[in-house]
Amino acid sequence: MKLRTVRAIFFKELVVMLRDKRTLLAMIGIPIVLYPALLVVTSQVALMHISSVEESTSRIAVKAGQDPTVARWVSALPRVELVTMEEPEIALLDGDVDAVVVVKQRAEDVLERGGSLLIVIQYDSTEPRSREAAHRLSKGFRTTQTRLLEDRLAKAGITLDFVTPLKLQEMNVAPAARIVGTLLAAMLPMIMVLMVGIGAFYPAVDLTAGEKERGTFETLLSTPVTKFEIVCGKFLTVFCISMLTGLLNLASMAMTFTFHLSDLLTKLQVGPEKAPVQFPLGTALLMILLLVPLALFVSALMMSVAVLARTFKEAQNYVTPFFLLITIPAGLAGMPGLELSAMLQFVPIVNIGLLFRDLLTDRATPEAVFSVLLSTSVYALLALVCATWLFQREDVILSEEKGVPLTLRRSRITPRSEPTVGMAITLYTVILLLIFYVGVYAQSKHILGGLLITEWLLIALPTVALLWYLRVDLLSALQLRSLRLDGALAVVAIAFSWLVLAFQLGIWHSNVLPMPEEMAKQYLQLMHLDDTNLVVLLAVIAVSPAICEEILFRGAILSGLEKRLPAWLLIPVVGLLFGVFHLSIYRVVLTGLTGMVLTYVVWRTRSLWNGILLHFLFNASAVLVASERIPETLTLAMRNLSATQAGLPWWLIGLAASVMSAGIGYLHLRFPGPDHGASE
Amino acid sequence: MIRTDRLRKVYFPPRSAPVEGVKSATLTVEPGEIFGLLGPNGAGKTTLLRMLGTIIVPTSGHCWIAGLRTDQNPDAVRQHIGFLSGNTKLYGRLTAREELRFFGYLHGLSKERIQRRTEELAEILGMQEFIDRRCDTLSTGQSQKVSIARVLLHDPEVLILDEPTTGLDIMTCQTILTFIRNAKHSGRSIIFSTHYMTEAEILCDRLAFIHHGEILATGAKESLYEKTGTTNLTDAFVRLVTDANAVPS
Questions:
Q1: Per-residue pLDDT for A556 more than 90?
Q2: A249 close to A302: Cβ distance less than 8 angstroms
Q3: Which of A63, A262, B141, B200 could link B172 by a cystine bridge, Cβ 3.0 to 4.6 Å?
Q4: Which helix (H) or strand (E) holds A24?
Q5: Is B227 a domain residue?
Q6: Is the pLDDT assigned to residue A219 strictly greater than 60?
C-alpha cells in the first residue's frame, strides 16, 4: 500500500465532498443551528407553560352543603376563585372548574368536638391547571391545619414543637454536572449516534454509488492504484466527515448548554440556586475518544451497504433502513434502568449509547470504557474487512444489472488454495465473539462439556465450515498433506524441552504478575477434577484443543497471513493472536510464547500434524503434572527439582534450552520451509 | 505492446445463467500500430478491453502489456496503460487542472512533472481557456480533451480506447482521431473499439471482428476483404456473421 496514493485519494475525495452543499449542510449547518434552536424553543415553551399555569387563577368549587367554613378558607387562599356550580364533578371533567372540594360533615361541629374533618380534593391529573389547583389547595389546607392544631394545643397548654419533635427539610445537593448529565443522558447518546450516522451517510453514498453513477469509478480503476488503496482513501474521507460532524455536534451542544442551561435550570428551579453549569472537560474528551471507533464502525458499514447500489438513489434506499436500524439501539440508552452489563458492553451501538449516558452521569467504570472501546474497534475492523472485500469484487464495482449484485452462492465463488487475510481476521474475531458469548456461558454451566462445545462447535466447526463455503482447498490451507517421521521426533523433543522452559517462565511470570488466587484455584481445579476419568480429562484438555485450535491458528490464520507478512512478523503475530485468544491477561505471555513455538514448527515443516502433536504433548503433560497422576518416582523427582523458590535448577533449564535449540535447528536445516516460488 | 493468449471471461449474473462475455481472444498489437476492434453492441468489445486494462480479471487465459503479465502485477501494468472509455468520466467537482494533478499523483508522477505535462498538454490540446474551470461546466468536447490529457499524462506505451467517438459531434470526433494518429506516430500500441466502420477503415492498421464474444477474423483490412470476397468492412462483417450463424456450433 502506498501512503502517497491513499493521501491523494483522501484529499481529492475531501475536496469533492466539501464542494457539495448537501454535505456542508449535514456537517455544519445542522449542529450549529440545531442545539441552540432546540434549547431555546424547549426552554421558552416550558417557561411559558409554567408561568402561564403559575400565574393563572384556579377556579374551585366547594361542595359542603350549608356550611360556609370550608368555602371561607378556600376563598382566603391566594390566586383562587370560588365558583358555584350545579354539578361541579362534571364541570371538573369538562375543564370548567379546576378542582372540587367535597366535605360531607359540618365543619364547625366536627372541629368543636375535637374531631377530624375529612376534606376530599377532586382534580384531573392530566390537566396541568387542575394539578396546580390541587397543589394550591393542599398547601392552603395544610396551613389551616397547622393553625387549628396550634389552637387546640394552646388550649391544652402544649406547644406545637412538642408534638413535632422532628422537622424535615429536603435539599437537593446533586452536583450541577450530574443534573445536567441526567438531562443530557436521556437524549445525547441517541443524538450523537444519529449525528455520526448523518455525517457518514452522504459521503458513504456519494463516494461509492454516486461515483458509480457518475461514471468515474472506472477512471479510478484504470490507474495504477490497488483496490485497497481506493477503499482506504474513501473510507478515511467518510470517517473524517462523520467524525467532524460528531465533533461539531458535541462542541455546539457543549457551548449551548454551558451558556444557556444554567439559566434554564435556575428558571425551572431544578438545581441548586444559581449553579454554574459546565460541560465537564474530561467527559467531553472521553466522548471524543469513543466517537472514533463509533465513526469507524458506522462509516465502514455504510460504505459496505452503499457500494452494493448502482445509483445514488438506490444507495439511499439501501442505507436509510440501515441508518434507522442503528438509531434504535442508540435509543435504548434513554431507557431508564438499563445497565451497561458485561454482556451489553459487547453489543455494538448499544454499548456506546449506554457508556455515553454513564459518562454523563458520572457512573462509568474504566473497565467498561476499555471493553466498549475494544469491542467497537473489533466491529469497526470487521466492517472495514467487509468493505474491502466488496470493493475487490468486480461484480459489485462494475455491476450494470438492477438490484444487489452480490451473489453468495457457493458455486460462484472462485476456488483458492489458501484463505485471504480478510478471511483470517473475520474467522478470528467471529470465533472470539462466539467464545465470549456462548463459550463462557457454556463453561460456567458445565466445565468439561462447555470446553468440548467451545473447542469443537465454536472453534473447529466455524473454521472448517467457512473455508469449505468459500471454496478454500482444505488440505492445502490446513497443510494436512505431509508428515515426516524425523520432523515428528524433533517436535517431540521440542515439546518436552519447551514444557520445562515454560514451567520456569511460569514461575518468573508469577513473580512479576501473580495470578489472583481465586483464578489460580479455578485453574487448578479444572486440571484436577478428581472424580473425572483421566481419559476424559485428556480428551477434553489435550486432544480437543490440539486439533481444534491448531486448525484455526496454525491452519486458517497462519495460511491466511503468511503471504502478507514477513516471517519475523508472521510468527509473533500468530503467537500473539493465540495468546490474546485465551481472554486472560495472566495467560497472554505464556500462551503467546507457546503459540509462537507452535507457529514456527508448522510454518517450517509445512505440516499441521506437527502442530497438533506439539500442542497435544504440551497440554497432556500439563494435565498429568497438575493432576498428579504421573508415576510417583517422577513426582518426587520433580518436587526435588523445583524445591527452590527460583524454580528449576539451572542445569535443567540449560539442558532444555539446548534440546529445544537442537530441535529447532534440525527443523531449520532439514525442512525447506515456505516456498514462495512454487506457490502460484 | 499488447499480447493476449486465449483470454476468456465468464460472467455470473445473480439471477440468470452464466454468460460467456469473451470466448477465446488471442491477438497482438505492435508498437506504433493501431488495432481496431469491431463489433455490434454487446459483442464483448468492452469486456475484452477491460481485461486488457486489468479492470476485470480474465476467467482464463493470459495477457501481457509492455512485457508484464496482467494477472501477476496488475497495478504495475496499469502504469503503462492509458485507458479511455465511455465509462471513464471526469470528476465534475474538480477543475480540469485539479483533475490532471490527481491522476498524476495516482500514477506516481512528481509535482513538477505533473505541472510540466499539464502545461504541455494544455498547449497541444488547446485547453488553456478552460483549464481552471470545474469539469461539470465543460462542454462535451472540452471534457473529452481533458480526458485525453488524463490518458496521455503519464506517457503510457499502450492506449486502450473503448468507443472513444461514440455519441460525439463531428468536431470532437476529429480531435479524438487526430489524437489517435499522433499517438501512433509517437510509437504507442493502440487498441480501440468502435462500431463505426468508416472510422476503422481510415485509421486501423489491423482489425478484428468480434461477435457474441468470439473473434471471427483478424488481419489488415485488405486481407479481410480478400478472405470474405468483399470491398468494404461493413460487407465483410455481415458476411462473417452470416457464415458464423450458418455453422451450427
A1: yes
A2: no
A3: B141
A4: helix A21-24
A5: yes
A6: yes
Domain range enclosing B233: 217-249
Query: What average pLDDT does range A213-220 have in this prediction?
Result: 89
Contact B81 A222 (CB under 8 A): yes
In terms of CA atoms, which chain A residue is nearest residue B49? A222
Report the DSSP pairing between strands B189-194 and B34-38: parallel
Mutate to test the interface with B, among A219, A220, A471 (most CBs of B within 10 A): A219
**Sign of the four-CA dihedral B41, B47, B53, B55:** positive
Q: With CA atoms as reference, report the closest residue to A227 among A383, A9, A467, A470.
A: A9
CB contact under 8 A, B78 and A216: no
Task: Kindly report the CATH number that applies to the domain delimited by A56-163.
Answer: 3.40.190
Q: Which residues contact A23 (CB under 8 A, 6 or more apart)?
A: A17, A202, A203, A206, A241
Confidence class for position A680, pLDDT limits 50, 70, 90: very low
**Does the structure show a pLDDT above 90 at A447?**
no
Question: pLDDT for B152-211, tens place per residue?
Answer: 999 999 999 998 888 788 888 888 888 899 999 999 999 999 888 888 888 899 999 998
Write the single-letter amino acid at A653.
I
How far is Cα A127 from Cα A597, in angstroms, rounded to an integer? 75
Residue B166 near chain A (CB below 8 Å): no
Rg (CA), chain B: 19
Reported in sequence order, the residue ranges of A404-495 that DSSP labels E, i.e. its strands, are none
Count Cβ atoms within 10 A of the Cβ of residue B22 and give its class: 0-12 exposed, 13-18 middle, 19 or more buried.
buried
Provide the b/e sequence for A307-334 (b: ≥16 CB within 10 Å).
bbbbebebbbebbeebbeebeebbbbbb
- For A483, which DSSP code? -
Q: Collect all residues with Cβ–Cβ distance below 8 Å to A608 and sequence separation of at least 6.
A: A478, A479, A480, A550, A551, A554, A555, A602
Task: Tell me whether residues A394 and B56 touch, CB distance under 8 A.
Answer: yes
Q: Residue A234's pLDDT is what?
A: 94
Residue A333 has pLDDT above 80, yes or no: no
Return the SS3 of B180: helix
Give the type of residue at B105.
Y
Query: Are A224 and B79 in contact (CB < 8 Å)?
Result: yes
In terms of pLDDT, which residue wins out, A346 or A237? Answer: A237
Share of chain A above pLDDT 90, in %: 24
Identify residue A397 by its one-letter amino acid code: I
B81 interfacial to chain A (CB closer than 8 Å):
yes
Nearest CA in chain B to A230: B106
The residue assigned the cell 512478523 is A569
Smallest Cα distance from A220 to chain B, Å: 8
Number of folded domains that form chain B: 1
User: Each residue of A593-629: pLDDT tens digit?
Assistant: 999 999 999 999 999 999 999 999 998 888 787 766 6
For residue B76, which residues of chain A lie inside 8 Å, CB to CB? Answer: 224
Grid coordinates standing for A348? 455494538
The residue among A12, A211, A222, A310 with the most chain B CBs within 10 A of its CB, best to mutate, is A222
Instruction: Enumerate the domain spans of chain A.
Output: 3-44+186-403, 56-163, 484-670
